[in-house]
Design brief:
Strand order of the largest sheet: 1-2-3-4-5-6
CATH superfamily: Ribonuclease Z/Hydroxyacylglutathione hydrolase-like
Number of domains: 1
Number of helices: 6
CATH architecture: 4-Layer Sandwich
Strand content: 25-35%
Cofactor: Zn(2+)
Largest sheet: 6 strands, mixed
Distance between the termini: 29 Å
Structural class: alpha/beta
Low-confidence stretches: none
Keywords: Hydrolase, Metal-binding, Zinc
Protein name: MBL fold hydrolase
GO molecular function, one term: hydrolase activity
Number of strands: 14
InterPro entries: MBL_Glyoxalase_II, Metallo-B-lactamas, RibonucZ/Hydroxyglut_hydro
Radius of gyration: 16 Å
Shape: globular
Helix content: 25-40%
CATH topology: Metallo-beta-lactamase, Chain A
Mean pLDDT: 98
């Protein structure tokens, strides 16, 4: 399995293309907004002969959903996320122009993922973890075999997701990190929604905001 990272939009958000050996892939948190960003994503998928099978939001803050409608139409896939972030997604249309995204195109979730669900990408399986605190419907995707965690904005390299946005709460986020992330093997690589990746082991001992 390969995980490709693209950093898009003024928020420097990480969009992930997760692909298996058969060329099937899923796009997680498409932050592409500008035409050039969409072209970068499309060109990469075409050059690698990838077949887009899934579109997933770890959560629905503006920087992670700017490309939702485009990816849905371009690759004829449904949008999946947690039901508790439906209102978070709907709100983006209201405030997007204030952030400079006047041409933001909204779209709805087509199906919901919840704690304990399994996301299948061919033979690769990802367990859905429900990890609120940064956003009310935040989820993460954990592949036990590959030891990778697509963690969104829960845990960063040396930091954590902000909790001052609507639906955010520090105690809830800390609980999610301690009970869902820090219980994973220490050599699990965390692919973060912003910045560089990290490991569970590193953050357990050195994260200044939430230690094990």
């Amino acid at each position: 399995m390969k995980i490709h990272t693209f950093t898009f939009n003024p928020f420097y958000e990480n969009t992930f293309v997760v692909a298996n050996d058969n060329g099937d892939c899923m796009i997680v948190d498409p932050g592409c907004y500008e035409k050039e960003e969409k072209e970068i994503l499309d060109k990469f998928i075409t050059q690698n002969n990838y077949q887009v099978k899934k579109l997933i939001n770890t959560h629905c803050h503006i920087d992670h959903v700017l490309g939702n409608a485009y990816v849905k139409k371009k690759y004829s896939v449904n949008l999946e996320g947690h039901e508790n972030d439906v209102e978070t997604l709907k709100a983006v249309e209201t405030y997007a122009p204030a952030y400079g995204f006047a041409n933001y195109e909204s779209t709805d979730m087509d199906s919901y993922l919840k704690e304990g669900d399994t996301v299948e990408l061919g033979d690769d399986l990802f367990e859905v973890l429900y990890v609120p605190g940064h956003a009310p419907g935040h989820i993460a995707l954990y592949n036990k075999i590959e030891k990778v965690l697509l963690g969104g904005d829960v845990l960063f390299n040396g930091s954590i997701g902000r909790t001052d946005l609507p639906g955010g709460d520090f105690d809830t986020l800390a609980k999610s990190i301690k009970e869902k992330f820090y219980t994973l093997p220490e050599d699990v690589t965390v692919y973060c929604g912003h910045g560089e990746s990290t490991t569970i082991g590193k953050e357990k001992v050195s994260n200044p905001f939430v230690k094990a």
